[in-house]
Amino acid sequence: MSSSSIVIRGGTVVNPSGNEVADVRIVNGLIDAVGTGLQGDVILDAAGAYVSSGFVDLHTHLREPGKEEAETIETGSRAAALGGYTAVVAMPNTDPAQDSVMVVRFVRERGEAAGLCEVIPSGCITMGRNGANLVPYASLAAEGVHIFTDDGNGVQDPLLMRRALEYAAPLNVTLAQHCEVSRLTEGAVMHEGACCSSMGVPGWPAIAEELMLHRDIELVRLTGARMHFLHLSTKGSVELVRQAKADGLPVTAEVTPHHLALQDELLRGFDPLFKVNPPLRTAEDIEALKAGLIDGTIDAVATDHAPHAAHTKEQPLDAAPPGMLGLETALAVLNTAVNVDVRRIAEVMSWNPAQIAGVGDHQGRPIAVGEPANIAVWDTTSVWTVSRDELASRSKNTPYHGMEVRGRVRHTIFRGELVVQEGKALK
Predict the structure, then answer these.
(1) Of the residues 304, 361, 379, 389, which is catalytic?
(2) 295 annotated active-site
(3) I need a surface site. Which of 75, 111, 113, 356 has the fewest CB within 10 A?
(4) What domains can you pick out in the chain, each with its CATH number?
(5) Which conformational region is residue 62 in: left (phi greater than 0), alpha (psi within -120 to 50 degrees), or beta?
């Protein structure tokens, strides 16, 4: 046993094969032993907690390069580690956008330098995310890009989307769509329904999401390419994905914690903290999303962590940008909002996202001897109150400030190194 040994003691190990109470020892970046009475140089208390593979976020906005006043790769990675994440997929709506090998390398190298979690650059579907010209898929795939998305913009041109899927299919990469028919959402600030009508503000109809989702499911049927659907928010979307899976199509889908926990009624106070894209929906939509998550229709919980500098979120509702923080609160919000067991939590926050992100060879792995030590230790019982002033993100636009939630990350180990201990970042 080397001097770098770490023992996670007394937790319940959560694996695809089942749960067991056991100690876990880590040496030189790998799991060295799983058993009882293990000894090591650093002992981490996991009593009453769960030990699983580290969480993987499919949808993180790190803002760097270009918008470092809101977040940097380092600050976002720290927030991720505090949330139990050992890997995050960095969305490409940076400035410049992640549509070239040079920018992808920059993002990956900055993530490696931070050393807090794995930062996985995504690529754009179109150059500059402008919906006109496709990116060089082969070059970016050769650089290790596995997920391509114009997140924030849905690809409006159906022919262009078909061509993108046809290029992607032989490269074994995944296109991830932000489903929004933009002509139907012009000027909208929140869900189109009774609440927005009573407030007298423009509404964002559910059909704007569902039309593009339906179109792309049919394009997947035509091309056979793999596709992932980002931050679904409506009852109709869940039903469309459920049917696509029943038809055997290679599609996956994610939901955010905020779409599971927060309702459109929260916007009655015109508070831009609750403005997000897609918007918060109705109680009926929330129940459908929860059901889809529990029954396996929805594969992953993804944060859509979207930091914004304070002065931008302090604008009027129609002018403020959409987006919320999510990395540090994801586990707690999910655990508080949805009656879901710990195995399903590990499945939707670690195992499934790792496979979708193309990093399943070293993330989302079983807690077993010889496996990489990317590990989260978390509980489902700790009750705490979210404070924007205590978050690691450079921005403070959390919608949960002052809210009481249940469940917390205790320790995070990345590549065998302890990066979070007792809820505190060590670097």
Answers:
(1) 304
(2) no
(3) 113
(4) 6-50+371-425 (2.30.40.10), 54-356 (3.20.20.140)
(5) alpha
